[in-house]
């Protein structure tokens, strides 16, 4: 019996999880420009919107761009975990 799986989807999810970890690490390390850059890449990937906007909001807040951070947080609230899949 052979098992079949969507290898492209698996690799895409692996890549996005690596981006999430990198973005969170950049926040912890205080590298906020890198965290914002990573969140922008995540948003281009059309997946994990809530996590991407959360990382972006935290990065912008620490860079003293409060208005932009508020917009990112509002966008974060639009997405729920059950909608965190590719459209």
TrEMBL record:
Tree of life domain: Eukaryota
UniProt-listed InterPro entries: TPR-like_helical_dom_sf (IPR011990)
- From the Swiss-Prot or TrEMBL record, give the protein name: MalT-like TPR region domain-containing protein
Gene3D superfamilies per UniProt: Tetratricopeptide repeat domain
